[in-house]
Amino acid sequence: MGKKDKRDAASKALRELQVDLSRLQKHVIKSGKKVLVLFEGRDASGKDGTIKRIVEHLSPRDTRVVALGKPSDRDQRSWYFQRWVPNLPAGGEIVLFNRSWYNRAGVERVMGFCSDEDYEEFLTTAPLFEQLLAHCGVTIVKYYLDISRSEQKRRLKERRDDPLKQWKLSPIDDAATKHWDDYSTARNEMLARTHTPFAPWTMVRADDKSEARLNVIRDLLTRFEFGGKDRARDLPDPNVVFPYDKAALTNGQIAS
Q1: DSSP track, the chain
Q2: Long-range Cβ pairs for the range 68-72 (8 Å, 24+)
Q3: pLDDT in tens, 22-59
Q4: Phi, psi of 95, rounded to the nearest 5 degrees
Q5: Which residue spans traverse the membrane (predicted)?
Q6: Best CA proximity match to 29, nearest among 79, 87, 94, 81
Q7: Which of 206, 213, 214 is nearest to 255 (CA)?
Q8: In the chain, N or C: fewer CB atoms in 10 Å?
């Protein structure tokens, strides 16, 4: 299959999946479900593009994308999870976090923006916070988009060279490849200590953007039962999207 044929096939598959997403949203609204989807990953792992494809044809009234900026002075003096609480979904809403409280276990840890005490407290309390949310009826879906070192380097260069992507650049980007090993260590610790039965991590191999986006949507759709769902598209590719397991850190499924 040539490149054009692959693009056409991917576009057709995306449209069909987005139709199912619209059906899912109707179900969420009717049933009053509270759906929270977290996207984490290294810089340039494809979080923006994946989220864009999910929400592209959903109702903006019942769907929100949350991407919080740098914490204010007041935020820094508050309970760590406090600034995310107002953004949690109400009944009938789907909320997608483009990065979340897991900043503390990633960029804050690697770049020294938090103390060792704050970091340890986060890894202890994050599972408790998520357990409370789950107990109160919030469906939590956590995706970690994983890319290789070479792919991250390529994408960051593309950002610097493309004037239409300048808004994505930040000082943190410059440190991303330099601190690759530090981010790997932080990622591994985060996954190991916050992967729980009520809020498990789902890994996404994201070097191929198109395949990652399609399979994240497929995976999201498998988590709900709703009318009109096309069951022929139920299962994502297990080589692209799979539940976190410690073995994946050594068997090549997760970038080292």
Answers
A1: --HHHHHHHHHHHHHHHHHHHHHHHHHHHHHT-EEEEEEEESTTSSHHHHHHHHHTTS-TTTEEEE---SPPHHHHHS-TTTTTGGGS--TTEEEEEES-GGGGGTHHHHHT-S-HHHHHHHHHHHHHHHHHHHHTTEEEEEEEEE--HHHHHHHHHHHHH-GGGGGG--HHHHHHTTTHHHHHHHHHHHHHHH--SSS-EEEEE-SSHHHHHHHHHHHHHHT---TT--GGG-PPPTTTEEE--GGGGTSSSS--
A2: 68/99
A3: 999 999 999 999 999 999 999 999 999 999 999 999 99
A4: -120, 130
A5: none
A6: 94
A7: 206
A8: N
Task: Find tokens 């009944």 and name the residue.
Answer: 91
